[in-house]
Structure prediction request, 110 residues.
Amino acid sequence: MATGDYSTKFNPDRLRNMIGQGKTARQIMKELGISRFTLKEHLLLLQRKDKQYYEIPGLLEEQEAALRTIRRRRGYVCSPATLCLPNFRPTDAFEMSEEEDGRIVMTKLN
Prediction:
């Protein structure tokens, strides 16, 4: 990433103020008219400038959601992170069972 104010929409005072007000990533993106990627870049520039860590609620939610298990019509689809585990392949079949405490256990069939 290039250092400095690469974007004409980067306004550190305004961004700092919105973070201080507790606005979510979606609200900040809408108000500034920028994408999620640009907001991340602006946040990094601000953190470098202030030498301080800032957190924006909802900024990383989509990435975290992509790593979770997704329920589909015909069953469950495991995330790419799950497929990195030993002995897991995209074509593997599983049997699901629910335990008394509400946990779901997946047993590999093949």
Remarks:
- The two ends are 45 Å apart (CA to CA).
- The chain has two domains: 12-61, 68-108.
